[in-house]
Amino acid sequence: MRRSVPAPWLLLALVIGYTGSSLASGKPIAPSKLRWSATLPGATTSTTPDGKYIYALRSGDKDIAIAIDSQEPEKSRRRHAAVFSAHVLIRNLGQRYWKVSFAGVSLEFVKHFHVVQPALDPSDLSQQLQASADELDHQTALAPSGPPAKGRVDEAYLRAYQKETSEFIEFVSRNSLQETVLDPGNPQAEGWVYFSTRNKWLSKWKPQEMFILRLPLDGTVYEFPFSLPPKPGEATLRQR
């Protein structure tokens, strides 16, 4: 007996039904990825007089640039907050609108077991910094009095800690990347994103570190791999 072959319309219905059932199952659709590369059209690198490396990518209606301080690993160790920071600038070159947010942004520490740290919420970061400063102040007030020399050192450290914390909280509140919608009337957003380095796998920096900053935008994850210090020829001064 010959087996009947389903009509083309029936095959199409089966495919549509299968696709629809997959969407109905609630499984998220993986976003596409675009990784910065020196050979990628629209990708550029540059440096600034104050020692920042800039990696930029223009793709479709998006113009994205990240700026990294050449000494950021060392600076992150000296901060009481223990955070690694990066500056992000995003321009909408088209007529559509799409959302920008620190949420979903992440930094991968490639040479440290590929640890991935999500971007910190600026409001939460400010609250944690203030809570740490208040706790140190409280502990200092309760500590038994010691020799005058030791007391002066502790007081000086406390004043320096509070000053640095206050200045950093103000910087975070004024300069962080905020959630917004970019459209022709509001085409640009910029600000800093912060990643915690308080992780047991990030105890000591390598002579050369490798990172991947990932930035989700409008259904695509834009990846920016970079090294500090850069590999020879990786970050050359070029006009965008």
Explain the overall architecture:
- With 240 residues, the protein is α+β, with helices and mostly antiparallel strands.
- The protein has one domain (8-228).
- Helix content is 30%, strand content 32%.
- The chain is built from four helices and twelve strands.
- The chain has helices spanning 8-24, 72-78, 122-142, 148-175; strands spanning 32-35, 43-47, 52-59, 62-69, 83-92, 98-100, 106-109, 115-118, 180-182, 188-196, 209-217, 220-228.
- The strands form three sheets. Strands 1-12-11-7-8 form a five-stranded mixed sheet, with no helix packed on it. Strands 2-3-4-5-10 form a five-stranded antiparallel sheet. The chain has a two-stranded antiparallel ribbon with strand order 6-9.
- α3 packs antiparallel against α4 (148-175).
- The termini are far apart.
List the helices and strands and how they pair.
Layout (H helix, E strand, L loop, with lengths): L7 H17 L7 E4 L7 E5 L4 E8 L2 E8 L2 H7 L4 E10 L5 E3 L5 E4 L5 E4 L3 H21 L5 H28 L4 E3 L5 E9 L12 E9 L2 E9 L12
Parallel strand pairs: 1-12
Antiparallel strand pairs: 2-3, 3-4, 4-5, 5-10, 6-9, 7-8, 7-11, 11-12
The total strand number stands at: 12
Radius of gyration: 24 Å
What's the rounded overall pLDDT mean? Answer: 84
Q: Beta-sheet strand percentage?
A: 25-35%
Strands of the widest sheet, in order across it, are 1-12-11-7-8
From the N-terminal CA to the C-terminal CA, the straight-line distance is 70 Å
Structural class: alpha+beta
Count of structural domains: 1
Helix and strand sequence: HEEEEHEEEEHHEEEE
Amount of helix: 25-40%
**Unreliable runs, pLDDT <50, ≥5 residues?**
8-23
- DSSP helical segment count: 4
